[in-house]
Amino acid sequence: MRISEASRVSGVSARSLRYYEDEGLIVPGRFSNGYRDYCRSTIDRVLVIRSLLESGLPVRLIKEVLPHLTDGPDDVGTDVVCAEFLHEVRSYRDRLAARIADLSAQRAALDAYLREVRPTDA
């Protein structure tokens, strides 16, 4: 699919798709006329990137961790990584866990409210 359709399907702007490509996060194919060609797996990768960015992980860390998140559990290597990188990824994971806990608590509060409230006839 071309960039306009990829943008629509993924919910990511064409500008962001070009940025992800410039940063080496995605590598879309090319048509003979030079237009980008986005396949389903590239769109799936874009959705992972978007989620990581929205969660606060910087692009420089996404570049390092993305292959391990999208290649599957059997492909994770035994790469030697620096302690600072591992600290940043753990910190990100901990922030994500805290957000999940907060959202779960908010959902539980809304569920409790919905169980107790009685609708009014409009």
Cα-atom Rg, whole angstroms?
19 Å
Number of helices: 5
Helix content: 55-70%
The strand order across the widest sheet is: 1-2
Assess the beta-strand content as a share of residues.
under 5%
Quick one: CATH class?
A: Mainly Alpha
Q: Which residues sit in consecutive blocks of at least 5 with pLDDT less than 50?
A: none
Mean pLDDT: 87
How many beta-strand elements? Answer: 2
Q: CATH topology, which one?
A: Multidrug-efflux Transporter Regulator, Chain: A, Domain 2
Order of helices and strands: HHEEHHH
Named CATH architecture? Orthogonal Bundle
Q: Terminal Cα separation, in Å?
A: 47 Å
The 3D shape can be described as flat
Structural class: mainly alpha
Q: Write down the domain tally.
A: 1
Largest sheet: 2 strands, antiparallel
Name a few traits of the molecule.
2 strands, 64% helix, MerR-type_HTH_dom, mainly alpha, transcription, transcription regulation, MerR family transcriptional regulator, MerR_fam, two-stranded antiparallel ribbon, 122 residues, Multidrug-efflux Transporter Regulator, Chain: A, Domain 2, 5 helices, single chain
List the helices and strands and how they pair.
Elements (H helix, E strand, L loop, with lengths): L2 H8 L3 H9 L6 E2 L5 E2 L2 H15 L4 H12 L12 H34 L6
Antiparallel strand pairs: 1-2
Helix pairs in contact: 3-4
Characterization of this structure:
With 122 residues, the chain is mainly alpha-helical. It is 64% helix and 3% strand. It is built from five helices and two strands. The protein has helices spanning 3-10, 14-22, 40-54, 59-70, 83-116, and strands spanning 29-30, 36-37. Strands 1-2 form a two-stranded antiparallel ribbon. Helix 3 crosses helix 4 (59-70). The model has no long low-confidence stretch (mean pLDDT 87).
